[in-house]
Specification:
Elements (H helix, E strand, L loop, with lengths): L3 H4 L9 H25 L6 H21 L8 H21 L12 H10 L2 H20 L16 H80 L7 H26 L1 H5 L1 E3 H9 L8 E8 L10 E3 L2 H17 L3 E8 L3 E8 L25 H6 L8 H11 L3 E6 L7 E8 H4 L10
């Protein structure tokens, strides 16, 4: 009997036992209804006993699986593949009894293969597809007559049967490839969004440190005042020539120093909204660029109002971890690929705020241009097991995706292009509605 540990392998399969059991019950109900409809309503002669025996076998298998294992059990690829292979064989047996490929329900061969494509490894899907094609080929030649009115026989031309076989094969292949691609993209997107949430949470924690420091200063003020009071009392009662007089004096001076530090932290709490929590666009860019300046690549910041809106004041932004991380990541990418220069152009109008980051590097690779901003897309050495082992990997292709996702969550529209010849290099344009990010805007939305 199969052990539960053999059936469950969370790292390799996404298919639960409950899912297959429910799909098989649906097949049992549908097959029963189809046979009863043909035999009773249409009155066509057909082998009822063998057909219901095959249906009953599936029902008993479901009952056994439900009793033996919990429905939430995550199946191993091997066990899931065997169960789907049984479903394929059971369908082939019913089709053999009811006309083979002439039966219009022959297209159901694609169902087990599609389920496998969305949940199981590629080798399991290929094996199941081969089994389905083998059964379809055999049923083209070996089968009982298709149920038909008494005294009549339906004989389809050989060319038509060949066309049916090709349609089943093509439909199965197309459905499997499409379902597998969609499922893989969904898994990648889920994993990438999870990484994005982790990054955003980390940035938010770093942004909150200033508030935590102010809160700590407030909470530590009372015990520190008590220590200072006790130290002064000890000094008053202790003889001047005592061996501990110098230590008490040091304790009092250090206590006063701590109180001064806490006072400065507390004052930041009072002015955090006005001083720390708000900053001009030019200050934000300078804060992000300063740690990245080096001797190899020159970074130039141009920050000014649009020529047609020269009187428009500079936007004042709230410190936003999403904007800081997104802009910072794009700046780091530009510096990594630039030859000698990275230019940051910030402009604003009465309605919009635009930040453009461009470099003089090779630009975005045309082979991946259509997939820029998707997760796990990179031209750097890939993040594979071999690369991890020898230390040659340089990234997973998530940086640009995370940056783009966080910036779009902040209200930005992100455009990735290459510069127009004769200039060369990549160009990233981020545009916000001023009412979304500018705290000084009359229509600014509360953050």
């Amino acid at each position: 009997m199969t052990d539960t540990r053999e059936m469950s392998n969370p790292g390799a399969s996404l298919l639960r036992l409950r899912t297959l059991v429910r799909l098989r019950w649906l097949a049992v109900i549908g097959q029963t209804f189809a046979i009863l409809f043909v035999a009773i309503f249409l009155g066509y002669p057909m082998p009822m006993g063998p057909c219901f025996a095959m249906i009953a076998l599936s029902a008993w298998l479901n009952i056994f699986l439900t009793i033996r294992w919990h429905g939430s059990l995550l199946l191993s690829p091997k066990m899931a593949g065997l169960l789907l292979a049984y479903d394929t064989a059971q369908l082939a047996a019913l089709l053999y009894l009811t006309g083979g490929l002439q039966n219009p329900f022959a297209f159901l061969f694609l169902v087990p293969v599609t389920v496998s494509a969305t949940s199981l490894p590629l080798r399991s899907t290929l094996a199941l597809g081969s089994i389905s094609f083998g059964f379809a080929t055999a049923l083209a030649f070996y089968h009982l007559p298709l149920p038909w009115p008494p005294g009549q026989t339906l004989q389809l031309p050989p060319n038509y049967l060949v066309g049916l076989w090709f349609s089943i094969v093509c439909g199965t292949v197309f459905a499997a490839i499409y379902a597998r691609r969609i499922a893989e993209e969904a898994r990648q997107m889920s994993a990438a969004l999870g990484a994005t949430e982790i990054v955003l949470a980390r940035e938010q924690r770093l942004s909150a440190l200033d508030g935590l420091a102010a809160a700590a200063a407030h909470e530590l003020g009372t015990p520190l005042a008590t220590i200072a009071l006790v130290a002064k009392e000890l000094k008053r009662e202790m003889p001047k020539d005592s061996a501990h007089a110098e230590d008490i004096e040091l304790l009092i001076s250090q206590t006063a120093r701590c109180r001064e530090i806490l006072k400065r932290l507390s004052s930041r709490d009072q002015a955090s909204d006005e001083v720390y929590g708000r900053l001009k666009l030019s200050s934000l860019l300078e804060d992000l660029v300063s740690p990245l300046r080096g001797s190899d690549v020159q970074i130039v910041i141009n920050c000014k109002a649009d020529a047609k809106h020269a009187s428009s004041p500079e936007p004042v932004l709230r410190r936003n971890p999403a904007i800081a991380y997104g802009l910072g990541n794009i700046l780091e990418n530009a510096i990594d690929f630039a030859s000698t220069l990275v230019v940051v152009d910030a402009t604003w109008t009465k309605a919009n705020v635009l930040v453009t980051v461009s470099d003089d590097g090779p630009g975005f690779d045309q082979q991946i241009f259509d997939r820029l901003g998707d997760p796990y897309v990179t031209t750097r050495p890939g993040y594979t097991e071999a690369a991890v082992a020898d230390g040659t990997h340089e990234g997973m292709g998530l940086g640009l995706f995370i940056a783009k996702t966080l910036l779009e969550r902040s209200g930005a529209t992100v455009t990735l292009t290459n510069q127009k010849p004769p200039a060369q290099g990549a160009r990233v344009v981020m545009a916000w509605s001023r009412s979304v990010v500018d705290l000084a805007s009359p229509t600014a939305q509360p953050s």
